[in-house]
Structures are given as structure tokens and as C-alpha cells.
Design brief:
The complex is a heterodimer of chains A (about 170) and B (about 525). With about 170 residues, chain A is mostly helical. Chain A has a domain of about 90 residues: Cytochrome c-like domain (Cytochrome Bc1 Complex, Chain D, domain 2), CATH 1.10.760. Chain A has seven helices and two strands. Chain A has a two-stranded antiparallel ribbon. In chain A, helix 4 packs across helix 6, helix 5 crosses helix 6 and helix 6 crosses helix 7. The longest helix of chain A has 13 residues. Chain B has 18 helices and 24 strands. Chain B has a five-stranded parallel sheet, with helices on one face. In chain B, strand 1, helix 3 and strand 2 form a beta-alpha-beta unit. The longest helix of chain B has 21 residues. The N and C termini of chain B lie far apart (about 70 Å). Classes of the chains: A mainly alpha (about 170), B alpha/beta (about 525). Chain A: Keywords: Electron transport, Heme, Iron, Metal-binding, Respiratory chain, Signal, Transport. Chain A: Pfam families: Cytochrome_CBB3. Chain A: Its cofactor is heme c. Chain A: This is Cytochrome c domain-containing protein.
């Protein structure tokens, strides 16, 4: 499963030079979509070229981030900015690479950032539970070219939580 | 229904009327008071050729450039992008857009079709934006925000079948009015309602809720005249109208479709709203016509330093073409670089300002533009502009406010997320994946999606290379140092939507800029 997931994610990245969106087909598998939305288990389905498995089976809303698998969480959340392979990105500003990143040696640092955000990065502590933050941190410490001894605990996460967390879904504008 | 308490009833009304949305809107806007835009800015006094370096050619930066040059300053503008406008941006046929991570999209829309990935509508009370459109000869046209014939949709309401907003709204209003009328009639609100007011209140409820003379909301040609008929009145033979059935109160309340009634009513969305003809970047181009000669494009600022004698900014070619480090100097600087980016630039701003810069997080948002071969929403469903709301992650479908009844492909906004987990979810996807999800969700409302889809483009704002987000977020302006952030820091003043009480609106960017240059000018003239 892990290999398959990584493969499809990389396939997804490789196919991102898609330019002819007109070629997209709306072959939405209603059952898959429905099941994904309710967070139900979905079996392996043949992948369309431009859809990674993790995107294809995405769930949204309250069911959006219920996985406790570090890789699944990373690829469906953190990878948006830090990229699927952890390489980060550079524009007018940059998203730091998490790949081979020495700041990940000890869990306290990534835990604090994931829970509370930092600089332009929003806080995720409002919708990730302690177990999920541990799972992401462990994934970061042991993947993406990092080879550290995972040392995250749910207690560390709980301690890093703010007394009065902000709600990321609060809309000041829509 | 009869066991519903008054407390619950009033709570429900508050929710439908958007109490929390209104609270945020009204506190953010300083209630419905006049804008602090009082017409074209007047910067009197001779700055004696003092030079101002403006960083960023979005609306805040170009407002500063335009007005400062007019006041006699020497102005230089540095812009990271290859064109002016910043988030005031339109993607149209043939445009290429590469997001962070490298995914490149070529907009496959037909000629003339476009999508505004950023701001897309202008409220009537955004006086500064409206006035600059007038002054810069940017033609505007109505933007259809409210369309009662568009849908409200929730997966768990009415078996997932989209409902016409006008039907649900009329039924909701009718049932609530009937309840309230009953309570008044039975004397249950005698403490709140005087005898004098009672009859007038009942009369108003009959009118507001389309109640009959027994204060009941019932199936009739009267109520059909508001919610739609089973068969519309016609002409000639067999032309008599047939009244439509009403949804029962429990169904309307349990559906929670009333959640979608409040947006249209908020001040920011009062009808009429407007849009620049041909795309939001009409405003950017209007400014660019005036100040384009001052702008250096593809300039990536790498450092911002000031001392007692002036400001020094270093920058590199943003296209990677090389050319080494360039230096621009000035007496003063108006910095409109988003804090998400400015925080990563080497600067020597004061600790107070630096603290705000490095602690402001940026909001994300996703928009997906979808082009279809024909206007099936008009041709099949009589929806001309306006917005359908859904509880799916796409949150809404906005139909084009122009080109009605025309043949050929048309573009609608097929997804618009604002903050929250769905925005993160879409951000972690590739553009094609976001488009695919917009189609999957949209076709639950419009089954025609499957056959009619032609092209799509998806923008996730966390992946927009020149801003890394959609807008700066204040959780608590006082605690986070808003007053510190807007101060003139020796020779540098920051401006932009992030330094306003109207975040993410172009009005905020312009008002912030006008205020910043007013204070800067005062300092230059009066010391």
C-alpha cells in the first residue's frame, strides 16, 4: 500500500504538466465519490492518468482529515506547500524544504509548527488531534530523506496546544 | 412545530439572518457607517522632488504610485510579476499559469472567456474602488450575486436534490411568519409587543410571509406568486395557473438550506454588485495605463534596508535570467509586499513591525473555472447569473453575469473555498485533480456537467508564487499589533489589504495605501 501510494503520488506530480484540461473527462465514479465523502473504505480503483489515488479518494468537510496515517496526512495536507517529496518551493517567497531537514531531528519543533503555525503558515492544531500530529511528525522524521529516531508523543502535542485555539474555518470574508 | 419554543425560533431566525456573518461583517466594516474614502486624495505641499520607492504593483502599490507622482514625488515601482495587478488578476484564453511545485496550466477557454482567480465582485459601498474605476475609465457592469432561481443544495436535504432558492426562501419566511403571527395573536409576546404595535406587526407578517387573512401560510396562487407555480399563468386555452405545493415547516427547517440565505443580505453582497467588464484585471490595467512607466517588472526584492539618509532595496531578476543584484535607492518606501513574502526578505525594520510581519499567517482559497460547451444553466434551467450554494467542498457555483443567451462555450466558477480544511485538501492536489473534483461535485447539481465540460483551470492561493496565500489574517488586531504594523517606520510604511479592516477586498488595499501615503506625505512636508 505504501509503495503504491508513493508511486501514484509521484505519477501525479509527473503528470502535472497537464495543459489540455479539455481532455479531462468527467468519469466521476459516483459510488467512489460518495464513499469517499462518508469516509468509508474504498478499494483500489484503476487510476486515471491525472488523478493520484490520494486525490481520487479524498474526503472533505468534517471527514476531511480523519486519517491517522502519517503519509496520508502529509500528502493530503503538508504536501500542498512543502510538496509531495518535501522539496519545498520558491517564488517571491519560499516554502522551506522538509527534505533532509535538520530541524526535524527532534519532534518538539515540527509539533509546535504543525499545531500553532509559524509566519505565514496557518495552525493545524484546531482540526488535527494529538495522534494525527504524532503521525505526521513521525512521517517527517523517518521519510523525505530524513532518518531520525521518531520521538513524538501525544503528550508533547497536548502540551504545545494553545489555551484558546483559533478556528481556521472562521470566515472574515467569503 | 407548535412545540417549538420562542427561544429556538428566535435563534433560528438569527442563524438564517446570518447573525454571526453579520457580526463579523459589521465589526470588520465599522458597522454600516460611511467609508473613510472621502474622494480623490489631496496631498498639498511641495515634496521638493523627494523619491519614493514603491514595492509591489498591486492595487495598493499602484494607488501609491499614482497619487504620489501626482503630488510631485519621484516614484519608482518594483514588481515581482511580469505584469501589474497582483491579486487583481484574470486568467483568460491562452494564458499560462505555473503554480508553486511546477504544475503549469494553459487556459483552454474559448476566446473572450475568463475567470477571476482572486477578487471577482465589487460591493456598492466600496467607494474607493468604485471611484478609481470611474477615474481610470474602467467600465463596470452588474455582477449577479442573488438569483432566487439558482439552487440551494445539501447532500442530506431533499434526497440530495437541489432546490430553487426562491421556493425554500419563500417557504421558510412563510412558516416563520406564521409561527410568529400565532405567538403574537395568542398574546405570547405581549411583554415585547404593545397593543398598538400588535396589529401592524401582524399585518407586516402577512405581507412578509405571504400569509392569508387567517395568518396562515398555505398553498395558493398568492404563495405561488412568490415561490413559483406548479403551472405558470399563460395565454389562451388552458392558461390558468396552478398553485404549487409547499414544503412543510419541518422539512424546511431540517433541510438547513436556510444557511445559504444570509450571504446575499450582508452589506458586502447587497445588490447591485459590480464587476469590471471583461475581467477584474480591467482595474489593474486602468492603473497600469497611468503608472506603467514607473514599474520595473520581474524584480524580486531580496533586501530592504533603511538608515537616517534613505532606503536601499536590492533585487534580482525574478525570471532567473541572471544579471546579478540590482540596487534601488530612495528617500522613502511604501512597501506593499505581502507579509508572507516580506517576512522572508532581509530587512532592518523595527522590532515592532518585524514582529507583526513574521507572525501573520495567510489564508488560502481555491477557485476553479470551468468552461462548458453551452449555457445549459440558462437553456435548461433558466438560471441567468447568480450563485448556487452547496454543502459540498466546492461551496458554490457562480454563473456568468454576461453574455446571456449567447451560443457557444461559457465559463462558470465551479468551486470557491475560503480557509479551512477543504482549502488545504484542494491545495495538496494538482490542478487537474481539483478540476476533477469540481466536476464530480458540480454534476450532483447539474447532471449536464458530464457531457458539456470543455476546459478548466484551478488556482489554489497557497500555491500562487507571488503571495503564498490569499490574504493576511488577523485573529485579534489589538493583540497582534495592528497599530504597530501601520505606523511609519522611520522611512518605510507598509500598506495593503492585510493592513486594513477590510481584508481580502481590494477596497482594503486601496484605503490602506491612501492612508499610508497621507501620513507619509505629512511627515515629508511637516517633519
Amino acid at each position: 500500500m505504501k509503495t503504491a501510494l508513493v508511486t501514484t503520488v509521484f505519477l501525479g506530480a509527473a503528470s502535472m504538466a497537464f495543459a489540455q484540461s479539455a481532455e479531462l473527462e468527467t468519469d466521476a465514479d459516483t459510488d467512489t465519490a460518495q464513499a469517499a465523502e462518508t469516509g468509508a473504505e474504498v478499494g483500489m480503483k484503476p487510476q486515471v492518468a491525472e488523478m493520484s489515488e490520494i486525490a481520487d479518494q479524498a474526503s472533505f468537510g468534517a471527514a476531511g482529515y480523519t486519517s491517522t496515517d502519517g503519509e496520508a496526512l502529509y500528502q493530503s495536507l503538508c504536501a500542498g506547500c512543502h510538496m509531495p517529496d518535501g522539496s519545498g518551493a520558491v517564488g517571491a517567497g519560499a516554502y522551506p524544504a522538509l527534505r533532509e531537514n535538520q530541524n526535524l531531528e527532534f519532534a518538539a519543533y515540527p509539533i509546535t509548527l504543525i499545531v500553532n503555525g509559524q509566519s505565514a503558515m496557518p495552525a493545524f492544531g484546531e482540526f488535527l488531534n494529538d495522534e494525527q500530529v504524532v503521525a505526521i511528525t513521525t512521517y517527517l522524521q523517518t521519510h523525505l530523506g530524513n532518518d531520525y529516531t521518531p520521538d513524538a508523543t501525544a503528550e508533547d502535542v497536548a502540551l504545545s496546544r494553545p489555551v484558546d485555539p483559533a478556528d481556521p474555518n472562521t470566515a472574515e470574508h467569503e | 412545530m407548535t412545540d417549538m419554543t420562542r427561544r429556538r425560533l428566535l435563534g433560528m431566525i438569527g442563524t438564517a439572518a446570518g447573525s454571526s456573518a453579520m457580526y463579523y461583517a459589521m465589526t470588520a466594516m465599522g458597522h454600516a457607517a460611511p467609508s473613510n474614502y472621502t474622494g480623490p486624495i489631496k496631498l498639498d505641499g511641495d515634496p521638493k522632488g523627494a523619491k519614493v520607492l514603491v514595492l509591489g504593483a498591486g492595487l495598493a502599490g499602484m494607488t501609491a504610485a499614482l497619487e504620489l507622482r501626482a503630488a510631485g514625488y519621484t516614484v519608482e515601482v518594483l514588481e515581482y510579476r511580469e505584469k501589474a495587478g497582483g491579486r487583481c488578476w484574470t486568467l483568460r484564453s491562452g494564458d499560462e499559469y505555473t503554480e508553486l511545485g511546477g504544475a503549469k496550466q494553459t487556459v483552454g477557454f474559448s476566446d473572450g472567456n475568463y475567470i477571476n482567480p482572486g477578487p471577482w465582485r465589487l460591493p456598492h459601498h466600496h467607494y474607493a474602488v468604485m471611484d478609481y474605476c470611474r477615474r481610470l475609465n474602467v467600465p463596470i457592469e452588474p455582477f449577479i450575486q442573488t438569483n432566487y432561481n439558482a439552487y440551494v443544495h445539501r447532500g442530506d436535504a431533499f434526497d440530495g436534490k437541489p432546490q430553487r432558492m426562491g421556493e425554500i426562501l419563500t417557504d421558510y419566511r412563510g412558516h416563520v411568519s406564521e409561527l410568529l403571527a400565532k405567538a403574537v395573536d395568542q398574546g405570547k409576546l405581549d411583554q415585547e409587543v404593545t397593543a398598538d404595535d400588535k396589529e401592524l406587526l401582524l399585518e407586516s407578517l402577512r405581507r412578509f410571509g405571504v400569509l392569508d387573512d387567517q395568518n396562515a401560510y398555505v398553498k395558493s396562487l398568492d404563495t405561488s406568486g412568490y415561490r413559483g407555480y406548479d403551472k405558470q399563468p399563460g395565454g389562451g386555452v388552458d392558461a390558468a395557473p396552478v398553485a404549487s405545493d409547499l414544503n412543510d415547516p419541518q422539512q424546511v427547517i431540517q433541510s438547513q438550506l436556510w444557511r445559504y440565505f444570509s450571504t446575499h443580505e450582508s452589506l458586502d453582497h447587497w445588490a447591485p454588485m459590480f464587476q469590471p467588464v471583461g475581467g477584474m484585471d480591467g482595474i489593474a490595467k486602468g492603473f497600469e495605463r497611468e503608472v506603467g512607466d514607473l514599474i520595473t517588472y520581474n524584480a524580486k526584492v531580496t533586501s530592504l534596508k533603511q538608515d537616517d539618509s534613505g532606503v536601499t532595496v536590492t533585487w534580482e531578476d525574478a525570471t532567473g535570467a541572471g544579471g546579478g543584484t540590482n540596487t534601488s535607492t530612495a528617500d522613502y518606501c511604501v512597501c506593499t509586499i505581502p507579509f508572507s513574502v516580506l517576512g522572508q526578505i532581509d530587512h532592518n525594520l523595527s522590532p515592532g513591525l518585524s514582529g507583526v510581519i513574521s507572525s501573520m499567517f495567510y489564508n488560502g482559497s481555491t477557485k476553479v473555472g470551468l468552461e462548458f460547451k453551452r449555457r445549459f444553466w440558462e437553456q435548461d434551467e433558466q438560471i441567468y447569473g447568480g450563485i448556487t450554494y452547496t454543502d459540498q467542498a466546492i461551496s458554490q457555483i457562480s454563473y456568468p453575469s454576461t453574455g446571456y443567451q449567447s451560443d457557444g462555450p461559457a465559463v462558470l466558477l465551479g468551486a470557491y473555498t475560503w480557509r479551512g480544511t477543504d482549502t488545504f485538501k484542494f491545495n495538496a492536489m494538482q490542478p487537474a485533480e481539483r478540476i476533477k473534483w469540481a466536476l464530480r461535485m458540480g454534476e450532483k447539481i447539474h447532471p449536464q456537467y458530464r457531457d458539456e465540460f470543455k476546459a478548466g483551470v484551478a488556482v489554489s492561493w497557497h500555491k500562487v508564487p507571488w503571495v503564498l496565500g490569499c490574504s493576511g489574517v488577523w485573529e485579534d488586531r489589538e493583540a497582534q499589533g495592528y497599530e504597530e504594523a501601520i505606523k511609519i517606520d522611520n522611512r518605510v510604511v507598509c500598506a495593503g489589504e492585510h493592513l486594513s479592516y477590510i481584508p481580502a477586498w481590494q477596497e482594503g488595499a486601496i484605503l490602506s495605501s491612501l492612508d499610508a501615503i497621507s501620513r507619509l506625505h505629512d511627515k515629508v512636508i511637516n517633519g
